[in-house]
UniProtKB/TrEMBL annotation, chain A:
Pfam families: DctM. It comes from Alloyangia pacifica. InterPro entries: DctM, TRAP_DctM. The complex comprises the extracytoplasmic solute receptor protein and the two transmembrane proteins. Part of the tripartite ATP-independent periplasmic (TRAP) transport system. This is TRAP transporter large permease protein.
TrEMBL record, chain C:
It is a multi-pass membrane protein. One of its GO terms (molecular function) is transmembrane transporter activity. Residues 22-155 form the Tripartite ATP-independent periplasmic transporters DctQ component domain. GO terms for biological process: C4-dicarboxylate transport. It is found in: Cell inner membrane. GO terms for cellular component: plasma membrane. It comes from the Bacteria. It comes from Alloyangia pacifica. The chain crosses the membrane at residues 12-30, 50-67, 88-109, 129-149. This is TRAP transporter small permease protein. Belongs to the TRAP transporter small permease family. PANTHER family: 2,3-DIKETO-L-GULONATE TRAP TRANSPORTER SMALL PERMEASE PROTEIN YIAM (PTHR35011:SF2). The complex comprises the extracytoplasmic solute receptor protein and the two transmembrane proteins.
Length: 426, 310, 165
């Protein structure tokens, strides 16, 4: 029966049904077959429940801000500054995507928000610099993953609460692992840039660089407000998203006069539609996660592990596979809520450091954001850049491979996760 | 098994509520010879508390153990528990209040809300923490505290001249770290589990807010159980209360040690300070309560005063 | 169809007003916290209000998104089919979409009724919580309308993609 339902989902997916139907229709079928007695209106409750979280609000606001900056001048000015500073290096704008996503992602803490905000700024520039469409899309989507690792990170906070692990130590570990992942992507960019086709800008004298910075003075206020506002404790990341919209409106419409009020209306509307497209999938994801929770799948896996008397090496492999498969089909944050409670005690009994296990879990959660078919970051890129999902998937898979390699490295070399926490906390 | 109940709650698996829910599930399974299975879903796997409450009414899930603070929207009468210093400090007196006419009247207010309220579970007392000094009550003025969504708790901070700020729980750690808010209120074991002490300078042990859990079941499910099974379940929930209280006390004790060891400044508020805090907050908080809960609220407040007058 | 044009205008206006209000409220609550002193406590409802408004924003935009061909899906294979087969497939998608949306909207109506009857109110605003389930009801009805119009050939949502951007 389960097989038939999965088959139904695959058929709908390949036949080109809207993703909301691909997720929703099999979920309804599953409900009617396995939980016939469950009251039907619960479906609507779970759909709404999937998106009724304050912390998700950063996504619509950052989409809105990114659309404003992209249509106006802020994005172009910021890109000019970056180009003036590093455009002449091998990889240039590619490294900027990685570094920018790490910086923006660190504070926003939301991978989808990072894709939305970075995408409209850097994607056109990557194409102009000669990176292929696939590589540009893949890099953009994958780099955003670092936002869950580099502190502050709600994912790490939730893990810390679930397992009783020190959040400061998790943050320290997350910083190291996030940088390792970023470096892996940067190395990939460096290799790609060496293949030819990717052009370099001429090296500019400092007078011209300063000129570019001066011209972008209003635009540079944006990162200052977001990063400065959060680290100085004036605003939360979610509020920073809303504040960035206000700043973008003031700068573009009032000071630079690059957008008319009519433009503003159209951009607001488009941002609302971008938001809806992503959130309706999160909503359907809420429904599916509910049924996965009810099925209590992890208990079966733990039983199996008990029987074969697995050691830590096997256990971590099984854990990674569980997370990978779950991350393909459900919202990775829900996967964490479902999988950590049964897996963590086993990890502890095998002597695995809780901070190390937290890094493995969080890296898996990040990976789940970019794995098809249910890869939220893929959908965000598709919606905000207007690119077909299949094209983005084609670009993303080499990065999934890089990511898996990093995951294996982090899994089997615990020192990477524990080095920084040990340095700071002894 | 003949009856399966999905029971959801918000705590993590090491916390008192979950540990004792598992214990209740075990007792019930044993005493009904496996006929009734309680499946426990921790840490909001089945949704946030609002969705779980609604799920219990709807029959999506069979039960939940809900902090009273998350039930005000469903049954305003229960918000009486948000009033500072409502539950007596002495554990035996507190339990007598729960078992007595006041406690029973409180549980009965759920009857017409589409939920069967089985019993109250004690879940500790709230304390204040902040990055600014909390040397006396005057020090609270102009500080920003994060509160749960409750108009009574807003009044509590207003009475102290502090601002009450609504923030999602998940963003609280970072907000305390960066200084978006100065402080918060929670039981010590929550302050330990959420690692708030890592980002807070001062803690005042004031025991001002009771954290009471309400054990709730779906009426249809509850009615479908034979009376003997109902008795077994109810018995198991009440039977573990002393053990739950002891477990909680041990957790709080351990948390206190961890918090002190971290270098956080911990101060115990004396009886005069507590009396003063109660004096300051009782009026506005109970007025806000009656404004919310109307005549049912007035009656409960009267029942409370009668029960505590002795 | 003047009615449809009017509907679009209403949808678009509501979306824009909602979204800008959400931004203004969040911005306002930051200002209140920084400069408003204890007045900030009076604005604790903003978080809840913005969260609820976002629900309406999301669901109310579903129909417009479909009409403009914006919903994500993997359309490569579908678009490679011969014209006749493709047309039948598209009708199939529209039919499934129409039935699905109507069914979810109908379940939503039951949810609205159930929660309104239970008397649940929102914790800080005190508004009846049943109203939040109006968001999926209206949203999926607007979605059903577009699936229906597309099924009967009254709108062309499959080639509208570029024109709307
Ligand atoms: Na982050
Ligand atoms: Na995925």
């Amino acid at each position: 029966m389960i097989f038939l339902i999965v088959l139904l989902a695959v058929v709908l997916l390949l036949a080109g049904f809207e993703m909301l139907l691909v997720l929703g229709v099999p979920a309804l079928a599953y409900k009617e077959i396995f939980y016939a007695k469950l009251p039907d209106p619960a479906i609507v409750q779970k759909i709404v429940g999937g998106i009724d979280h304050t912390t998700l609000l950063a996504i619509p606001f950052f989409i809105f801000a990114a659309n404003l900056m992209g249509a106006g001048q802020i994005a172009a000015q910021l890109v000019n500054v970056v180009k003036a500073l590093v455009g002449h290096t091998r990889g240039g704008i590619g490294h900027v995507v990685v570094g920018g996503s790490m910086a923006f992602g660190s504070v926003s803490g939301s991978a989808p928000a990072t894709v939305a905000a970075m995408g409209r700024m850097v994607y056109p520039e990557m194409r102009r610099a000669g990176y292929s469409d696939k590589f540009s899309l893949g890099l953009l989507v994958a780099s955003a993953e670092t936002s869950l690792l580099i502190p502050p990170s709600i994912t790490l906070i939730v893990y810390g609460w679930m397992t009783g692990t020190s959040i400061s130590q998790l943050f320290a570990g997350g910083l190291a692992v996030g940088i390792v992942l970023g470096l892996a992507f940067a190395l990939f960019v460096w290799l790609e840039a060496g293949k030819g086709g990717v052009t370099r800008e001429p090296r500019l004298p400092w007078s011209e660089r300063l000129c570019a910075i001066w011209q972008a003075k209003w635009a540079l206020g944006m990162p200052v407000i977001i990063l400065g506002g959060i680290y100085s404790g004036i605003i939360t990341p979610t509020e920073a998203a809303a504040v960035s919209v206000v700043y973008a409106i003031v700068i573009e419409a009032v000071i630079l006069r690059s957008l008319t009020w009519k433009d503003l209306f159209a951009i607001t509307e488009r941002s609302a539609i971008n938001t809806a497209i992503i959130f309706v999938l999160l909503a359907m994801g809420g429904l599916i996660s509910f049924f996965v929770t009810l099925a209590q799948v992890p208990n079966g896996i733990i039983g199996m592990l008990d029987q074969v008397d697995a050691g830590w090496i096997t256990f971590l492999m099984v854990a990674n596979v569980c997370f990978f498969i779950a991350g393909m089909f459900i919202d990775p944050n829900s996967a964490m809520l479902i999988l950590v409670p049964p897996l963590f005690p086993v990890a502890q009994s095998l002597g695995i450091d809780p901070v190390h296990f937290g890094m493995i879990v969080t890296l898996n959660i990040s990976l789940g954001m970019i794995t098809p078919p249910f890869g939220l970051d893929i959908f965000v890129a598709s919606s905000t850049l207007g690119k077909p999902v299949a094209q983005i998937i084609a670009g993303v898979w080499p990065f999934v491979v890089v990511n898996i390699l990093v995951l294996l490295l982090i899994t089997y070399v615990p020192q990477i996760s524990l080095f920084v926490p040990k340095l700071i906390f002894g | 098994q003949e009856f399966v109940a999905k029971i959801g709650h918000l705590e993590s698996t090491a916390q008192s509520r979950h540990v004792h829910l598992e214990k209740v599930a075990e007792l019930v399974k044993e005493r009904t010879e496996g006929a009734v299975e309680l499946q426990i879903f921790p840490q909001g796997q089945l949704g946030n508390q609002r969705q779980m409450n609604e799920g219990v009414q709807l029959g999506t899930i069979e039960g939940t153990v809900a902090p009273a603070a998350f039930l005000g929207g469903f049954n305003p009468a229960v918000s009486i528990l948000d009033i500072p210093y409502l539950i007596p400090e002495d554990a035996a007196e507190a339990q007598a209040l729960r078992d007595g006419p006041f406690g029973q009247a409180l549980l009965a207010t759920f009857a017409d809300k589409g939920m069967v309220a089985l019993t109250l579970w004690p879940n500790g007392k709230k304390q204040f923490s902040s990055n600014k000094p909390l040397d006396d009550l005057a020090a609270f003025a102009d500080q920003k505290f994060r509160v749960m969504d409750s108009s009574i708790l807003l009044e509590q901070f207003n009475a102290l001249g502090a601002s009450a700020i609504a923030l999602p729980f998940g963003e609280l750690y970072t907000s305390l770290q960066t200084g978006v808010v100065d402080g918060e209120e929670n039981p010590l074991d929550t302050i330990k589990n959420m690692k708030f002490y890592e980002v807070q300078e001062n803690v005042v042990i004031s025991d001002h807010g009771a954290m009471e859990d309400v054990v709730l079941f779906n009426p249809m499910f509850w009615e479908s159980l034979p009376v003997e099974y109902q008795d077994v379940i109810k018995g198991a929930f009440t039977e573990v209360i002393p053990e739950l209280t002891a477990h909680k006390a041990a957790a709080v004790e351990e948390a206190l040690q961890v918090i002190k060891d971290s270098g956080t400044n911990v101060r115990v508020a004396g009886p005069e300070e507590r009396a003063e805090l109660r004096e300051l907050t009782w009026g506005p908080a109970s007025e806000a309560y009656v404004a919310m809960a109307g005549d049912t609220g007035k009656a409960l407040l009267a029942a409370y005063e009668e029960a505590t007058a002795k | 169809m003047p009615l449809l044009t009017l509907l679009r205008k209403v949808e678009r206006t509501i979306l824009v007003v909602l979204f800008l209000t959400m931004v203004a409220l969040f911005f306002g609550s930051v200002l209140m916290r920084e400069f408003g002193g204890t007045m900030a406590s009076r604005f604790a409802w903003i978080e809840e209000a913005v969260r609820l408004m976002n629900l309406f924003l999301v669901f109310l935009a579903l129909g417009l998104a479909l009409e403009r061909g914006k919903h994500v899906g993997i359309t490569n294979l579908r678009d490679k089919l011969p014209e006749g087969a493709r047309r039948w497939l598209l009708r199939g998608i529209d039919t499934v979409g129409l039935l699905f949306s109507l069914y979810v909207a109908w379940l939503g109506v039951q949810m609205v009724q159930f929660v309104l009857k239970s008397g649940q109110t929102s914790p800080t605003l005190g508004i009846p919580m049943g109203l939040i389930y109006l968001a999926p009801v209206i949203g999926f009805l607007l979605l059903a309308l577009r699936y229906g119009l597309s099924l009967f050939g009254l709108i062309d949502r499959f080639t509208a993609q570029e024109a709307a951007e």
